[in-house]
C-alpha cells in the first residue's frame, strides 16, 4: 500500500473466494437488508422510538469489511450501526430488543438504535454525536499498543464526520503515534439532506488522509468483494507497518437519513441509478452467471432470512422492559 492516495478499479475475481465465503456474504447482506426493512416496519408500528437510521444500501460496505476482521479487533461506529452489530455476531434478537428498549437488548434497552454495545465481541458502540467516537477509537488503538495487545481499532464514520475538528486531530495523532487504527468512511454522498460537495471542500474523502500522510484508498462500497479485499489489505498493512490506514467506501443509502426522512432532496433518477448497483443484486448476478447460485437457492436464503428476522422480533417482544428500580444502573462506573 502506497503512502499516497489510490483509487481501486475493476472487478475482483470470484475465484479468489471460497464458495462458503461467497454464500456467507450473500446470506449476511440479505439478512441485514430484511432486518432493516423489518425495523422500519416496527418503527411505524411504534415498537421502536427515538432516532433510527438504517443501513439499507450499505450492506456491501459492512459485510465486506467486518468479515475481514478478527475477534481481537475493536469496532467503533456512528449511529447507523444495526448492520455492523449483526455482522459482528451480536444475535439479531439482541439487536432488535435494544431497538425495542428491552432488557434483553445489547445495552439492556438503555441505548436504543444508536447505541449498540457488546464489549465481549469488541463492539464498542454505536455513537450518536457525529465524529465524537474518532478520538475514542484512537484511544483504543493507543491502549492496544501500550498494553502490547493484538488487534486493530476499526472506526466507521460517515463522510459528514470528516468535517468535524475531532476528525483532523485524530488523524494527526494516529499517524504521529503510529496507532494501529483503520478509519473507514462510508461515503453515501449525503449528510442528512446536504450533498457532500456542499459540505466538504474536498468531496473525495480519501484525499484528506494524505494531509496526515496516512495511506488511503477509495473503493466501490457496493461491491462486497472489493470491500473485503481492500479491508484485508489495509489490516495486513496496519499489522505489518504499525501505522493507520484510511479507506473510503463509495456507497448509497437507498432510504432517507433516518426512518422519518422521505429523502426528497435526491432525484428519483439518482436513486434509481444507484439501485441498479444494489450490493446484494450485484453479488447475486455474478454468482448466478458463474453458476454458483440459482433462483431456488436465492429463495431458500430469503425464506431462511424471513424466519430468522421474525424470530428476532419475537425475542424482542418477549423480553421485558427494564425494571424501574434499575433506573440508575450503569449510570456511574
Ligand atoms: C456534532 C453533531 N452535529 C450534528 C448532529 C446531527 N446529525 C446527525 S447525523 C448528521 C449527518 C451526518 O452525516 P454523515 O457523517 O455523512 O453520516 P451518515 O448519516 O450519512 O451515515 C448530523 C448533522 C450530530 N448528531 N452531532
Q: What report would you give on this structure?
A:
- This protein is an alpha/beta fold.
- The protein has a single domain, classed as Thiamin diphosphate (ThDP)-binding fold, Pyr/PP domains (Rossmann fold, 3-Layer(aba) Sandwich).
- The chain contains twelve helices and nine strands.
- The protein has helices at residues 19-44, 59-66, 82-88, 92-99, 133-147, 165-176, 196-199, 206-210, 224-241, 268-275, 279-289, 295-318; strands spanning 5-7, 74-77, 123-126, 153-158, 181-187, 190-191, 194-195, 216-220, 245-250.
- It has a seven-stranded parallel β-sheet, sandwiched between helices. It has a two-stranded antiparallel sheet with strand order 6-7.
- Helix 2 (59-66) packs parallel to helix 9 and helix 5 (133-147) packs parallel to helix 6 (165-176).
- The relative contact order is 0.18.
- Residues 78, 80, 128-130, 158-161, 188, 190-192, 257 line the site of thiamine diphosphate.
Bound molecules: thiamine diphosphate
Average of the residue pLDDT scores: 96
Order of helices and strands: EHHEHHEHEHEEEHHEHEHHH
CATH architecture: 3-Layer(aba) Sandwich
Q: What proportion of the residues is helical, as a percent range?
A: 40-55%
What value does the Rg take, in angstroms?
19 Å
Distance between the termini: 41 Å
Query: Unreliable stretches, pLDDT < 50, 5 or more residues?
Result: 1-6
Strand order, largest beta sheet: 1-8-9-5-4-2-3
Q: Specify the structural class.
A: alpha/beta
- What general form does the structure show? globular
CATH top level class name:
Alpha Beta
CATH topology: Rossmann fold
CATH superfamily: Thiamin diphosphate (ThDP)-binding fold, Pyr/PP domains
Number of strands: 9
Largest sheet: 7 strands, parallel
How many domain regions?
Answer: 1
Amino acid at each position: 500500500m502506497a503512502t499516497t492516495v489510490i483509487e481501486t478499479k475493476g472487478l475482483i475475481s470470484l475465484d479468489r473466494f471460497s464458495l462458503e465465503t461467497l454464500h456467507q456474504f450473500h446470506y449476511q447482506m440479505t439478512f441485514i437488508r430484511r432486518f432493516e426493512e423489518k425495523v422500519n416496519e416496527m418503527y411505524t408500528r411504534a415498537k421502536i422510538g427515538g432516532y433510527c437510521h438504517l443501513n439499507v444500501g450499505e450492506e456491501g460496505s459492512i459485510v465486506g469489511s467486518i468479515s475481514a476482521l478478527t475477534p481481537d479487533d475493536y469496532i467503533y461506529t456512528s449511529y447507523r450501526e444495526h448492520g455492523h452489530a449483526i455482522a459482528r455476531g451480536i444475535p439479531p434478537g439482541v439487536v432488535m430488543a435494544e431497538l425495542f428498549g428491552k432488557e434483553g437488548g445489547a445495552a439492556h434497552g438503555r441505548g436504543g438504535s444508536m447505541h449498540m454495545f457488546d464489549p465481549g465481541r469488541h463492539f464498542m458502540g454505536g455513537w450518536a454525536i457525529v465524529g465524537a467516537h474518532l478520538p475514542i477509537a484512537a484511544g483504543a488503538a493507543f491502549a492496544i499498543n501500550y498494553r502490547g495487545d493484538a488487534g486493530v481499532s476499526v472506526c466507521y464514520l460517515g463522510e459528514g464526520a470528516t468535517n468535524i475538528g475531532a476528525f483532523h486531530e485524530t488523524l494527526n495523532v494516529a499517524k504521529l503515534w503510529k496507532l494501529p487504527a483503520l478509519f473507514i468512511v462510508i461515503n453515501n454522498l449525503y449528510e442528512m439532506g446536504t450533498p457532500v460537495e456542499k459540505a466538504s471542500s474536498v468531496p473525495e474523502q480519501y484525499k484528506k488522509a494524505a494531509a496526515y500522510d496516512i495511506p488511503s484508498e477509495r473503493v466501490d462500497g457496493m461491491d462486497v468483494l472489493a470491500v473485503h479485499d481492500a479491508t484485508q489489505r489495509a489490516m495486513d498493512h496496519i499489522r505489518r507497518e504499525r501505522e493507520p490506514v484510511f479507506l473510503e467506501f463509495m456507497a448509497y443509502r437507498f432510504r432517507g437519513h433516518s426512518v422519518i426522512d422521505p429523502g426528497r432532496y435526491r432525484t428519483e433518477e439518482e436513486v434509481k441509478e444507484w439501485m441498479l448497483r444494489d450490493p446484494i443484486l450485484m453479488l447475486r448476478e455474478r454468482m448466478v452467471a458463474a453458476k454458483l447460485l440459482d433462483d431456488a437457492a436465492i429463495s431458500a436464503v430469503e425464506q431462511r432470512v424471513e424466519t430468522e428476522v421474525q424470530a428476532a422480533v419475537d425475542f424482542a417482544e418477549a423480553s421485558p422492559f427494564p425494571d424501574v428500580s434499575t433506573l440508575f444502573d450503569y449510570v456511574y462506573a
